[in-house]
Amino acid sequence: MPDPFVNRRQLLKIGLLGGAILAGGGLLSRTFSASADGAASGFAVLRDSELPMLRRLIPLLLEGSAPSEVMPQAVQTTLVSLDLGLHHLSPALLSQVRQLFDVLSLPLTRGPLTGIWSGWDVASDDQLRAFLLRWQNSSLALLRQGHASLLQMILMAWYASPASWAHCGYPGPPKV
């Protein structure tokens, strides 16, 4: 009968394999993103290759933060705010965000790391939730950090927008 617990040797093997997959994915994504498209039309930083992923994840992460009838506008507002925030990042931080977005956008890395094999546009909400939950609870710190970064960037972009304030009861900054 197989042992249900992972021993130290197996844990090291899993960690090394996960690290190798992420490093290889990062290398591949940097290689492909070096020739990738520039900023999408109307954006300073966000690229066309990143928009399908963001347009699918933002509504799930904003569930309960915006009424469903205004969700399309909330997604667009969040994208604009996120783009503005990314535009003001240091080059080093922007490079790290691009690596995260490349890993999530490149089919070669997206499938194995997220479980979204067919593409963001056709993934079901349940598949997206499973991906987010898997990364949130991953044994690999890098995936947990990726989840936290994605969540924080999107939520900060949404709550920086005046469109979000009424729903959460914030009257806005004081008039000076």
Task: Report on this structure.
- The protein has helices at 8-34, 51-61, 71-87, 91-105, 107-114, 125-136, 141-159, 162-168.
- It has 176 residues and is mainly alpha-helical.
- The chain has one domain.
- Helix 1 (8-34) packs across helix 4 (91-105).
- The relative contact order is 0.15.
- It comes from Stutzerimonas decontaminans.
- This is Twin-arginine translocation pathway signal protein.
Topology:
Elements (H helix, E strand, L loop, with lengths): L7 H27 L16 H11 L9 H17 L3 H15 L1 H8 L10 H12 L4 H19 L2 H7 L8
List its salient traits.
TAT_signal, 8 helices, mainly alpha, Twin-arginine translocation pathway signal protein
